[in-house]
Each structure stands twice: as structure tokens, then as C-alpha cells.
Amino acid sequence: AYNIHVNGVLHCRVRYSQLLGLHEQLRKEYGANVVPAFPPKKIFTLTPAEVEQRREQLEKYMQAVRQDPTLGGSETFNSFLRKAQQETQQIPTEEVVLEVLLSNGQKVKVTILTSDQTEDVLEAVASKLDLPDDLVGYFSLFLVRETKDGAFSFVRKLQEFELPYVSVTSLHNPEFRIILRKSYWDSSYDDDVMEHRVGLNLLYAQTVSDIEHGWILVNKEQHRQLKSLQEKVSKKEFIRLAQTLKYYGYLKFDPCVTDFPEKGCHVVVSAGNNELNFQVRLPSEQIKEGSFKVTRMRCWRVTSSVPMSNGPSGSSPGKSEVKLELAFEYLMSKDRLQWVTITSPQAIMLSICLQSMVDELMVKKSGGSIRKMFRRRVNGALRRSDSQQAVKSPPLLDSPDASREPMAKLSSKLTSVSLRGMSHSSSANDVGANDFHGNYAFEGIGDEDL
């Protein structure tokens, strides 16, 4: 059997024959020209080298399927992973009570089935809170780890290919929790959410919590004004004032390491406002701050090295020694692209944030409405598991097919930039062209943006 890891945690174990069955089902539904090539069957027993080669091929196959918007969002693919997760963790289908946290620490207990997928659980929480249907899509469930000081470290946004109850209980660690938070980046959407009492309360609780944990920066005078609005219970005014503060609407990540501006720098990364913000501690102990705009990232990739172990791991779950890196190629100036790498256990969550920022920008650019996009999702997918329509959400490992058209167009658009061949990156661990995630928001960048 092959272990499939999600963010360094074992998601499920599957056999070659099961994956072949999935492949054949996808070919039947979507056509042979859409589905990537599958590692061939072998007549004789595989040698250890061939086993490893097949593992690599299967990994590439699963990533290629996942990052194709049609295949990766398909009910066939997602239900395969959900079923495999439930079977691997040996959790029978039964009714259970799941505890979901709100930002202010309040616990919402929902009665669900162990086999309920992410959308079902989100709907159950929304229903318990009386959050109206057309606001459900503005929120998401996140897997977090509670830290000693009561703050949260984000593991990932729960995806449609997993069962939240199984994901959290299989970690066998009470520090892991599921939390409900808003899942959009543009604070102008706050207006939609604040129209309704429950939406306003959720947003208010999250804002208060982010200020208390130091995620949103507040000076003494602002703190005094916020305190007075809190005492008057002026929630809307409180949020309006918070919107003007630094890092409002950002997700703050745990301290990690970056190679920018030089190797081995300690950094605190925050994601928000269509950028990654770096607070870097230089070897000279000097603190510097700067931001990388998502529109100027040409592409990015996540790479991981998983310890070779097929048996039960000796270390406790969640303390896996997996090394994850997020690297992005950034347009530093008119004719200079440079790779920036972040080494962090939260690399996949960072990647999911980048992807969702790009998705939101593209919806805006095409004149679409985020509310409509979400409403369609609510009507289509937030029904119990018999739903055939899958919710599109960012790929798990954001390293899609670099050969997609916009990537080719870039070289003609940016004639002043010497674009290296995709597979000749300056990174030490060279990865092939298909391991990159091309960024469509980068396409429209012009000289005035620089």
C-alpha cells in the first residue's frame, strides 16, 4: 500500500489497484485526453528500485489530477479520497458530536456523521448558529493547533476531499481543533457579512481575537478608541476602525526561516491584502519589514521531503519531521526575477492562501461577484454527501501544470525580463516544469505596476 500524506500527516493508505480503478473511472467520465498518464502495470514482481519509481510516478499522477480544476474538483476524485481516509483510519459511519470553535473560544457542538464531508459540517455549524445560506460561503473550517498562550497555529483549510471528524480525531492529540473563520481576503466583503446579525457577531469575535493575539497592530490611542466602542457595544464601528489598522484581515504564521534577503534569516510571515508580508530578523539582529505582492509572483511551488517509513511512525502524529518549503519566483524589478524560499511546516497553508488570493483577484477582474460564486456553491454542494457537484477550492499541493497557456505568453509580455526555462530554477532541489503553479494574476502586470 502507498501512504498519501496531506501536509505531512497521513491521510490514507491505498493500493495500486485502487488508484488504477480511480484512474479508469476518471477516464470514463472525462475522456482519455483530459486525464494524465497512469504508471503502467508490470507482469513481474517489482524490484525495490521499481517500487520507488512507481511511488514517485503515482505521487506525480495524484498531484496532476488534484491541480486540474475539472478533475481535482470532481466528486469522483474527492469521494475516492474521503472513502480511503475513512477506511484507513477504520472509523465506522455513525452519528457523533463534533466540537467546532469560534474565534472567541466559544464552542459550537454539532451532531454529524463521521462520514460527513467538509461542506456538510460547515453547513451544520452555520445552521446551528443561524447563519443565513448566502453567507455560508464567506466562511471556512480550518484545522488549527492550539498553542500554550491560547492562540492558534493554522495547519490548513479543510478541503472537500476530507472528512473533518476523521481528520481531527485521527491525530490523537487534543491540541488539534477545528475553527470557523472568514475565508476571503478583500475587506470590502465585510459589508455583505455585516448585513446580518450572526455574520456581524462572527466577524466581530474574530477581529477582537486577532487584536488580542497581536495579529492586528494597535497603538495606545487606537486601543483606547476600540475599548470605548467595545463598551458601547458598537460592533460595526469597532470593525470599521479595525479595518484601518495594520494587518487587518491577515493570517499570521508561526516564525520560520527564509533565504531572503540572505540564507537562514528568521521571519514571521503574514498573508493578507494580496501580499505576503515578511518581518525578517537579519543575522545582525536588525528587524526589517517588506511585502511581496501576489500579482508579481510569476509562479510558486511547494516541495516536501517525507521520512521513509511505512509502519506506524515512532514520533507522535503532528510532530512529523516532514520538511516543507514554499518557493516563489518574484519580479523584483523591471527585468529581474528572483526565487524566494520559505521553510515552514505551514508551507501548504501558505500556498492555499496564495491560491485563494489569486482566485479572488481573478473573480474581481472578470467582473464576477464573490457572493454569486458562493451562493452557487451553497445551492450546489452544501447538501449531504449525495451531492454530485463538487466545490472548487485551491489545489492541495499548488504546483500545477506550467505548460498551461498563460505561462507561454509571459515571455513575450515581459521581453525585458530574462525568463529562465521553467525547469532551470536557481533552487538547489531542482524540480521539473510540472511542479510549478503558474500565477494568472501575474499576466496583467505592466510597467506602471512596477
Automatic annotation (TrEMBL):
Residue span of region Disordered: 381-410
Family: Belongs to the sorting nexin family.
Alphabetical keyword list: Cytoplasm, Cytoplasmic vesicle, Endosome, Lipid-binding, Membrane, Protein transport, Transport
Descriptive protein name: Sorting nexin-17
Membrane topology: Peripheral membrane protein
UniProt gene name: Snx17
Domain of life where this protein originates: Eukaryota
Domain named PX: residues: 1-88
Main location: membrane
Ras-associating domain span: 94-185
GO biological process: endocytic recycling; intracellular protein transport; signal transduction
Signal peptide residues on this chain, from the entry's feature table: none
Gene Ontology cellular component list: cytoplasmic vesicle membrane; early endosome
InterPro entries membership: PH-like_dom_sf, PX_dom, PX_dom_sf, RA_dom, SNX17-31_FERM_F1, SNX17-31_FERM_F2, SNX17/31_FERM, SNX17_FERM-like_dom
GO molecular function per UniProt: phosphatidylinositol binding
Subcellular location: Cytoplasmic vesicle membrane; Early endosome
Described function: Critical regulator of endosomal recycling of numerous surface proteins, including integrins, signaling receptor and channels. Binds to NPxY sequences in the cytoplasmic tails of target cargos. Associates with retriever and CCC complexes to prevent lysosomal degradation and promote cell surface recycling of numerous cargos such as integrins ITGB1, ITGB5 and their associated alpha subunits. Also required for maintenance of normal cell surface levels of APP and LRP1. Interacts with membranes containing phosphatidylinositol 3-phosphate (PtdIns(3P)).
